[in-house]
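Hey,
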Amino acid sequence: MGKTHLDDLHQAAKPGDASADAVVTGNTYDKYGSSNPLVKKMMANFEDTLDDLWKQASPNSILDVGCGEGVLTHKWAERLGDGRIVGIDLDEPELKAAWEHRQRPNLEYRILEATKLPFADNEFEMTTAIEVLEHVPEPASTIAEMGRIASKYVLVSVPREPLWRGLNMARGSYLKDLGNTPGHVNHWSKRAFVKELSAIGKVVEAKSPFPWTMLLVDVR
């Protein structure tokens, strides 16, 4: 979960395989470090929108579900100062190797499944899942756990459908799968995603940085 993959909005990205737990094991691309002008523009919009919602929530502690290589997790750890942040993901060697290079005293990485987490109710002010929920086999369970553990906010993003598939189809990718990116097992329009997250709280912000949906949910 949460790998730094742009899926296949970048022409150089290659199809990968999805593992049995619906986590993409191929098709990875360093979207944060890309020099492609189109990718840089989209990612700047994505990160600006994410930062705006992060600042609105202004958390003092975070659980980052599906933290991937820890790019955002480490950035947030620096921003939190002494505030606690925990990043969780599955047991994959390349992720653990990346974590070794992204360390801070207030940051902890753990190997955990997201559907049943060993944290207390309201243990973190905010829980996050950035480009993760489209991959998880049981999104409702993961979302419920995120809502249980957060005392104030849940911050999430997913690819926006059917736009995402349409973009893939338009450039001739994954035609036999109707444009579905490998590893995507859940598909939400903006309206459907708002409805899904409304099960745990009030959606106070719903943003659409092209081509994603990003929500800030108040669970108090």
